[in-house]
Amino acid sequence: MAKEEFQVPEVREHLEIPPVVEGAMAHSQPFVAAADHQSLLGYPEELVDGWEDKAVEKMGEMARKYRSFRVFLDACVKCGACTDKCHYYLGTGDPKNMPVARQDLLRQVYRRYYTLGGKLFPGLVGAKDMSKEIFDDWYRYYHQCSQCRRCSVFCPYGIDTAEISMAAREIMDSVGLGQKYCNEIIGKVHKIGNNLGLPLPALEDTMEGLEEDVEEDTGVAVKYPVNVEGAEVLLVTPSADFFAEPHVDGLIGYGKVFHQAGVSWTVSSHASEAANFALFTGSYEHMFKISNRIREAALELGVKRIVFGECGHAWRVAYSFLNTLAGPWDFLDPRYPVPQHIMEFTYDLIQRGGINLDPEANDDKVVTVHDSCNVARASRMGTRPGDQFAYPRAVIKASVNRFVEMDPNTTMEATFCCGGGGGLLTDDLMELRVKGALPRMEALKEVVERDGVTHMAAMCAICKSQFTKVLPYYGMGMDMVVSVHQLVSEAIQLGTKD
Amino acid sequence: MSLVTVAYAVAFYLATIILVGGLIYRIREYATVPSPLKIPTMPAPLTPMGAFWRVVREVIFFESLFKSNKWIWIFGVLFHAGLAVVLIRHLRYFIEPVWFWVVLIQPFGVYAGFAMVAGLFGLWGRRVVVDRVRYISSPSDHLMLALLVAIGISGLIMRYVTRTDVIAVKAFFMGLMRFDWQPLPTEPVLLIHLGLVVLLMVLFPFSKLLHIPGLFFSPTRNQWDNAREKRHLATWAAPMDAQRDT
Ligand code: SF4
Ligand code: SF4
Fold it and tell me: Are residues A131 and A233 located together in one domain of the fold?
């Protein structure tokens, strides 16, 4: 899709709620998964005969398996509190991007088949028979939700549209309508171990290259090990860290931190991916399989700890689900939480004085921070609620002298998604991604103009890729995005602790 | 015994059965569907007690709604708090002697009635005026508001315009509870008021009024944050878990 095909939203001084424009994004939908991507995951290759009944049946099954799904479908009172909370609504004005309306796409069918009111008086309660038209809407609008959970913060019943989106995608997959981007990636992880399909030799090459670069840069031989048995730490990081900018600068930073901490570590080629895209497609089974690759790698390499690199959705699965899906972790060192976030690792090190950071190294920057949606609202770091906000800020402030916060309505638990989460980080959804980034872009522009902010630190592979891509649409430089550990990497004084 | 009395007595018995039975059924359903993964909206409390208080704050103060929209919050609180006081006030029709604190609350009950209706009109107004809320409203949303408004206004009419024989009404309800039926006054406003209440009771377990039990069962609010410490294996996921070789 070329840039000129759509209008980039206008950046205003204050966030404004757009008027309803029906059908504004009805043309937006991702590429459909090909037959072989579907079959690899055990889904029908194409829309099956009698898909209407099967989808309805699957919906009933989901309602028996997930309390969230069951309760959320009943509890909504249509109060409207969530209607202006979704970045996709704010950026597009399409009413089906209001969280409650997005839920209603599924709820209308659920009501028709599973509630008395919907069976008796469909017109009255807004219940509808399953139809191709509705199903098409599902495919479009459940792929305009980045599952960021912002709506769940503001709903009086905590209704989380992400749960509905995930269930809807699982239902669509089960009758043969999958999304290419996610399903292709999940297949690659099952086959090779990471989203990019990066095989072992390529991984080794990359890591060797990093060792050379860092040594050339700093004169210190920092190791970037692959598949080292008996290492203390297994680092599981999003595969984008291995090659994309600015991700790789973060990975360089992790290596330097481990080096100065004197902790041996390794990545595994078997579990060379932190991201778990099965979260996006709502598949417990695939999420389970991908998670257990990490268990297998940890056992195989005999590590004592598992540390995750910077990634939002990955950290959600890691923090909130990994123990359930791939635990128990009784074979690891019980003194550390499993898994740990690299931010926790670095933070602890800073607290203990185990690392020398010179923030002056970053004096060319004025830095703000983007809280990733899934770090903020779906997981935690540290020991107290809210440490997921405190730790990254503490790490950044230890590495940087000039730090600025963005509008509090757009940070911490109220943070806006970057616009590319939830399996939407694909070029076929470029318009949606650009428009969905609007609230964050407005908040960023404000601090750029007011405080001279030059860089925005991110702690998620998706955020980093997404911002790199959309910043230019808003007239800002793509290199404004930095990894948090890139700042650490600049500030760390190698050779002072050895 | 007049036909009206019999009809209303039977209706109240049936409505009570449907309301209680329906709610028990729903609550059992909500309670038995598993929560396979930990999904509290973070930052979340770390302990069961903390999660309990989080739900209490939602129930009493509408904490999340306060964060999200002050207008809906104000109208919502007016309506719900008003309704709560009105309901307590109505206890006097069901107990003898009337508890001390129920007596105390009587004078406030009337203001509460107005607050309740005002809140409802506020919420209804938003449904009509705000384009986003208009878009998500279906006929049932308007009808539910109409029903509640009609109950409220018929109640206020009885207090201010007509003179209802409250002694007889109380005798009717006490009689219902003791299975010793007493005649119900046949005043039209009263019959409308009570008829609508019966309708509301019947609709409860089948409508969005399920937001009340729903709130207590909402995993994003009632879970506490201990996923790294404790596994949460659902029964349906256990076989998958067991067939791992390591
Ligand atoms: S805030 Fe919650 S209850 Fe209100 S409309 Fe949105 S989803 Fe429904
Ligand atoms: S989860 Fe995020 S993207 Fe999805 S509807 Fe809610 S606010 Fe919008």
Answer: no
